[in-house]
Amino acid sequence: MEQNRSNGDNFLVDLYKTAVTNADPRTEQWLFVASPLPALAAMFGYFAVVWVGPKLMENRKAIDLGHFLTVFNFGLVALSFYITKEFLMSAILSGHWLTCQPIDYSDDPLAIRMASACWFYYISKYIETADTVFFILRKKGNQITFLHVFHHGTMIFNWWMCVKYIAGGCTVFHAVINSIVHVIMYTYYGLSALGPAVQPYLWWKKYVTKIQLTQFVIILGHCIYVGTHCHFHLKGFVFLAIFYAVCMITLFTNYYYQEYVRRSRLKAE
């Protein structure tokens, strides 16, 4: 019994030492990076809001957020565009390839610029959780799916780990793809928030879902390539990314089937 406890203590000590040793010293003092507590608090706080929020709104009228939603969504379009631009510019100027590119942990200005883009992307995950709050306030419970909650909640902690340990290199490929998709997605949301007059022009909603699904197929392929062809020093992150991509592909495929395929069949009947 004592031997097992000792082994367990040693494992935790080794795990802690590994976590400290592999941390990126450049991002250590950046906001919400030094400790996992802010990311964990935000993640579990988000899940709590998802659970409690609809109950609090149950006997209240839906709140019309009007043009605020349009401003919010186009604000995220601008932020996503800025993040995409920062990733691409720092990659192009440094001759960065997004396949087997090692992480540059130096204080080179372009390496810092790329790490900063990772941090902005991480912070954007906090901001994007407001989507769910707005659904709750507007009593749009049908849009708060498991896919929606799982993705918003977990991305915060996922990208805390990325900024803490792997802010750069081939890691940024996933963020670039996702940021481009978010430019398209939040453009759609922003236009949708303008009201009924714009609705006839939003026939391309299902293509937004297809684009979201396609991004995770691309990300999965990239992760497999990195895991099999690259000397990535923290392989655990590759396996975690593969697992996450498979989860998202499964959830998006199910959502697409339920929302478009199954619904169209029911209408035909």
UniProtKB/TrEMBL annotation:
Chief localisation class: membrane
Biological process per Gene Ontology, one example term: sphingolipid biosynthetic process
Amino-acid biosynthesis found in the keyword field: no
InterPro entries: ELO_CS, ELO_fam
Keyword Lipid biosynthesis: yes
Subcellular location: Membrane
Single GO term (MF): fatty acid elongase activity
EC number: 2.3.1.199
Topology term for the membrane: Multi-pass membrane protein
Pfam families per record: ELO
Coiled-coil intervals: none
Family the entry assigns: Belongs to the ELO family.
Name of the molecule in the record: Elongation of very long chain fatty acids protein
